[in-house]
Amino acid sequence: MPVKFELADGIITLRMVDLYVPEDIKIALLDGLKDPRTMGAVGLLFDVTRSKSLRVRSPDEIIAMGYFLAQYAEFYSNRVALVGFDDFPYGMMRMGRVTLERAGVGCEVFRDDASARKWLLAGPS
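-> C-alpha cells emitted (125 positions)
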C-alpha cells in the first residue's frame, strides 16, 4: 500500500511510501476518517520521509493537496504536522505549510516523526 493510514495516541498519520499518485492520498484519508476512532483526533501527521513520488510533484500539486487537507482539518483539530527528512521533501512541505496556514490550519514542518508527534500532542500554543 503506497499510502498508509494509521491512528495512535489521537494522532492520524498518513505515510506516503515509494510511488503513489495524489488520488491515493485522498482515498486513504477519506477512508480512514470513516473510522469512528478518529473522532477527537488531536492532529494529522503527514509523513513523506519514504516518498519517491514527491520528487515529481509540481508546486501546483503540492498546493492542491494542501487545500484538500484543509477541507478536512476539523477532523484533526485544525492541526497538521508535515514531515520531510531531507532538504527537498522538507522544502516541499514548507510550501504545503503556507497553503495550509492560508486556509486557517495550524501547521509546522519537521524532519522527524518524534518531533512532529510531540508538537501535535502539546496542543495549540
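The chain has four helices and five strands.
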